[in-house]
Each structure stands twice: as C-alpha cells, then as structure tokens.
Amino acid sequence: MQEPEEKKIALELLETEQAYVNRLHLLDQIFYTELMKEAKNGKTVPEEVVKMIFSNISSIYQFHAKFFLPELQKRMEDWSCNPRIGDVIQKLAPFLKMYGEYVKNFDKAVELITVWSEKSLPFQELIADIQKRKVCANLTLQHHMLEPVQRIPRYELLLKDYVRKLPPESPDRDDAEKALEMIFMVAKHSNAAIAEMERLQNLWAVYQRLGLEDDIVDPSNELIKEGPIQKISTRNNSTSEKYLFLFNNMLLYCVPKVIQVGAEFQVHLRIDVDGMKVRELNDTQFPHTFLVSGKQRTLELQAR
Fold first, then answer.
1. Which domains does the chain have, with CATH numbers?
2. Which of 27, 173, 210, 292 matches a 20 to 30 Å C-alpha distance to 259?
3. What positions does the domain PH occupy (predicted)?
4. Cα–Cα distances in Å, from 40 out to 22, 44, 50, 272, 298?
C-alpha cells in the first residue's frame, strides 16, 4: 500500500533530525570538546574564545539528542496506532527559543575563528585536523556551524508541508496547526534577535565615530538619521560644514575632525529632543534653511 503523504513528511522530519543530531554531536562533542581541552592546556587560544565561538551549542545538542529525537522516534514507531506528531512539536517549540542566543552570536563566532586561525597556528592546525576526519565529510567548521541557524526555518517548511497534506478529518490537524504557529513565532523571535544585534553593532560604530563620550553611550538609544549640514553664521553671512546625528532622545551637533585619530567627530552641542522645535525659514540668500531650537540652544542650519 502507498504510504500516506503526511507520514512521508513525518519520516523525513525524523531522518533529518537524526542527521542534525549527528551534526550537533560533531560540533559539541568533537570540535568544542577538543578545542576546549587544548585551550585548558594553554596551547591554542583562551578558553573564553572557545566558549564564545560555540555559544550555547551544548544545550542545543542535549535537547535534541536526549529529548526531541527520542520522542520523534517513539512516535514514528507507534504511527500505525497513533498517527500524529503535532503534540510532540508543541512540546519542542518553546525550547527552540534557545536558538536566539546561538543565531545572534553566529557572525561573531565565524569572525573569531578567522581571527584566531591567523593568530594561533596550533588553533588553526587542530581545526584542520578535525576537518580531515571522515565525520566532517570534507566540510569546514563554519559550514557545520551554519546548520543550527538553518534548522528552525527547515522545521517550519516541513511542518507547513505536513499540515497541507493532512486529510481534513485527521486527528492531528488541530495540534499540527498549533505547532506550526508556535514554530513560526520562534522563527520570528530568532529574526528579532538578529535585528537587535545589528542595531547594537551599528549603534556602537556610531559611538566610536563620536569618541565614546560617557554621557552619550547608551544601548537604548536609537539612531534615526545622520548627515552633513551647513551652519549659518549671521555675523559674517557665511556657512561652515557641520554634521548632525539625530537620536530618539537627542540631537548631536558635531564638527568633523581634521585629523581623525580615534573619533571622526567632536560633539559641540547636544540638544534634547524633548521640547525641541524645528521651523523652516524663507531666506532668499540661503535656501533650504531651518531653525532648530531646544532647551540648550538655537541653531540656524542649511540643508543641501
């Protein structure tokens, strides 16, 4: 007899999970364990670096190897009398939020591997040695590390397919639909983690350009817009090049540094957004001008 379509997808989920657990075993029990052992002997890199590269891979491995894979195997063996996987995936879904940390750390981890491979020959040689083993299938550490990043989208695709193929009267329909919704939310959670990481990286880059002034560096700030501007001097009817950074809570009025050692700009003035007013001016001599007035000061500026 022809196997029902939904069973084929459930079996594919089980097979890919088995292969995935093998990949996690390679990352956690071989790469991480052996690199950590060498780091403890003080031969390759600091232990902290190895921990930062592998993030929370051990928790992810334990979860899949000891919980999710055995649950799936048990369910597929029982398929003839209990044809469903929706409830198992519902139990799994909340734990997938663990991936947020791994995904958020991924770019940094890959960068650390590159940096330390150049800095430390023993580190580079140990990775190369593990990569030569049959279990690595001629693939690099970075390639294997990408697998957990791609796993949640893979669950989502398989489960979507499974729900589509379920007969309307299937006893698994409600559970499977609910499970799909939960996986979708986890994927969103993971994407939000990446977006937040990028926001903080960009914010940090801006702070470095401003010379890391203590009262400006705050992770909760949001950069809204930045760009060059002309400051109008009414005294001698001239303009001079300045630069603005508009955050959600402050406007920074800066002067570009001629000699860019460290910072690119010097902050001349900070105007709180709270209570700040912006008014367009009709000046025939200086078109595109506007007035920014705040608690601290009023500036007459000209845009391009």
1. 5-189 (1.20.900.10), 223-302 (2.30.29.30)
2. 292
3. 222-304
4. 25, 9, 10, 50, 59
Q: Per the structure block, which two tokens stand in for 155?
A: 């669950």
Enclosing H/E stretch for 7: helix 5-25
Q: Identify residue 159 by its one-letter amino acid code.
A: L
Residue whose entry in the numeric block shows the structure tokens 């992810």: 60
CA distance 207 to 77: 57
CA quadruple 152, 154, 155, 159: dihedral sign: positive
pTM beyond 0.90? no
The token pair that represents 97 in the structure block: 């939020």
CA–CA gap between residue 214 and residue 204 (Å, rounded): 13
Phi, psi dihedrals of residue 79, rounded to the nearest 5°: -50, -40
- pLDDT tens, 28-80? 999 999 999 999 988 789 999 999 999 999 999 999 999 999 999 999 999 99
Q: Mapping DSSP to helix (H, G, I), strand (E, B) and coil, where does residue 268 land?
A: strand
